[in-house]
Amino acid sequence: MQLTTAEKTDITNILLMILSGCVAMVLPFELFLFSYAILGPLHYLTEISWLHDKKYYTKERYDAIILVVIGLLLTIRFFQDKIELEFPENFDANLTYIALLGSVIFVTVKNKLYRIGGIVLLIFTSQVSQHFILFFSVFIPTLIHVYFFTAIFMLYGALKSQSRFGIPSAIAMVLCPILLFIIYPDKSFYPPTNYSLGAYGVFKSVNIQWLHHVNGVPLQNTMADWDHIVFYSKNGILLMRFIAFAYTYHYLNWFSKTRIIQWHKVPRSRFIGVIILWLVSVGIYLYDYTTGLQWLVFLSLLHVLLEFPLNVTSIIGIGNYFKSRLVKPKPAKA
């Protein structure tokens, strides 16, 4: 029985999920830091390059410019303490709200008047996101992006390719985090190294917000208490297993699909530029992790924002697939 390219890719992805999950169980903090610094920059650069050739999956090319501007504003907001600028409250949540829902307009609306009206409406209603501040400012750019949207992308690909292993790979994506929470839940195989403790500090707010809102850990803890909870408590380690798995597999999933989506087929000069930037970025991370993060914060945010139209396209594609299965076409009149 000969396997198609899509089926080989799906089998590879199942194996990559198992590998990512096994390492995440044993070395969650170290795996995350490695994947984020080594695989992350290459993913950002190659995906943005690929999305550019795909016209960002939007109706108009200039739609991407709006997302780039939002990315610049979010980057400036990230460095607000260093450049001594003041921003409105919940500025990052409001901008992410506009970018995500604006991407729905970019993908589905062609009429210029409706598009402008829709964006204006989003700007005026962006304060609605105050009820979902953490959702837009913390979880969408991180865990929702690397896990939920990756799972959606996988399911959409499985439905399109009709691969025999497509749906099993999507099911494995759901099962892996569950297994990471129930297999050896009380065991920490290796405590995080001193380097990991220092390097991971800048990411810690995601863990804290999750542990507070999902596990009910009080926010009133001191920073020393939070260090213990995040790095050594049962809930902290189980959460970190999921985070390390989600990020690592998010990157590996992208690279595993090279033959299918052909992201490497770009002009030679652009490909060389991508490799040079990637090597420089990895070098900066190796020199100092925090400096590497600051160096790539714009690129990291930009790849999340520019992927929103693809996420919307995938969700619409899944909906259309099931709609075509449920709604039978009317027979033609004689």
What is the compact description of this entry?
The protein has 334 residues and is an all-alpha fold. It has a domain at 5-57 and 134-313. It has helices at residues 5-26, 28-53, 63-78, 80-83, 91-108, 112-125, 133-161, 166-182, 194-199, 204-213, 223-232, 234-256, 258-261, 268-287, 289-326.
Describe the structure.
The chain has 334 residues and is mostly helical. It has a domain at 5-57 and 134-313. The protein contains 15 helices and no strands. It has helices at 5-26, 28-53, 63-78, 80-83, 91-108, 112-125, 133-161, 166-182, 194-199, 204-213, 223-232, 234-256, 258-261, 268-287, 289-326. The protein is globular. It starts with a helix and ends in an 8-residue tail after the last helix.
What order do the helices and strands come in, and which of them pair?
Elements: H1 5-26, H2 28-53, H3 63-78, H4 80-83, H5 91-108, H6 112-125, H7 133-161, H8 166-182, H9 194-199, H10 204-213, H11 223-232, H12 234-256, H13 258-261, H14 268-287, H15 289-326
What descriptors fit this protein?
15 helices, mainly alpha, 334 residues
Q: How does the overall form come out from the CA principal axes? A: globular
Strand content: under 5%
Give me the secondary-structure category.
mainly alpha
Question: Largest sheet, if any?
Answer: none
Helix content: over 70%
Strand count: 0
